[in-house]
Amino acid sequence: MSQQNTGVAVVGIDIGKNSFHIVGQDGRGEIVLRQKWSRSQVETRFANMSPCLIGMEACVGAHHLSRRLRALGHDARLMPAKYVRPYSKGQKNDFRDAEAIAEAVQRPTMKFVATKTADQLDLQALHRVRERLVSQRTGIINQIRAFLLERSIAVRQGIRSLRAELPRILAMPPDVLSPSMVRIVQDLACDWRRLDERVEGLSNEIETIARQDAGCERLMSVPGIGPIISSAIVAAIGAGDVFTKGRDFAAWLGLVPKQISTGDRTILGKVSRRGNRYLRVLFVQAAWVVLIKPKIWERHGLKPWLEAAGKRLHHNVLAIALANKLARIAWSVLARGRAFEVQKINQAAPPPT
Length: 353
Fold this sequence. Notes:
The chain contains 13 helices and 7 strands. By secondary structure, it is of the alpha/beta class. The protein has 3 domains: 10-104, Nucleotidyltransferase, domain 5; 118-211; 214-336, no CATH class.
């Protein structure tokens, strides 16, 4: 196998922690480069190569490397790993993975992932830390409820109810709640307060960033969307250039029915739940915020659509349909660079099924 860099037109990189496996092809598709490079060698080697098409799977470290290779004049592109897998031949190893990446990046119908900027990655990191802390807080609250329920102490649903009832519960006599259990619940309550403080601090930091970003400000004009959702959208898709229309963005979020069709039969199932789970959950929460406030429907031009859809859809299905609609509106606002404009709807359009 030739190890020279001359004549390389397409390169596939299988990214590792300390070593990268490189497979390069010439214009005819023949493999002319097959090497294993250390992390420190990658930029130096590509700096000495002529500009070429470089493919990588979108994974940890891929966005940073993509930006550095583009600065060197190469056309670096990122792809979802599941779209690369069909191009792998034979048993799995790192060089075959790199070869599959080189094959996949050349396909004209391949769907690529937009390279994130450093600011986008920083904002995304804030959201991921906040998401983890919220999950931990939920786990602590559920654990407190479970311990109390073991002692036949039931508390109404909701964080506020538990927070209000906790002092009274901890003051119960020992025959109802043992001293040992009181101490355990008090420790969990302290953990709960610390997590509240950290979540609030991160939320304030995210809100400050969102207020200073023009794209986030436009997104916050959409009903149900605030600083958290708007900043999460910008962190995930930037200006939305990777999607050609709002329907594609909603499908990427997994807010469309799962399709299993053949011949003349079109079978639509439950929501697909593909793509970015975090954003999908936020959009569903935004939809519920709109649904529980009927007074704002008229102001945002959603009243005819929601009233017509509510007559024939279960409220949970209606929430998903509205989340889909909000996602498409959000993409349009972000991609076209203008705030949400309320329009009167004389006849309600049918929601997506």
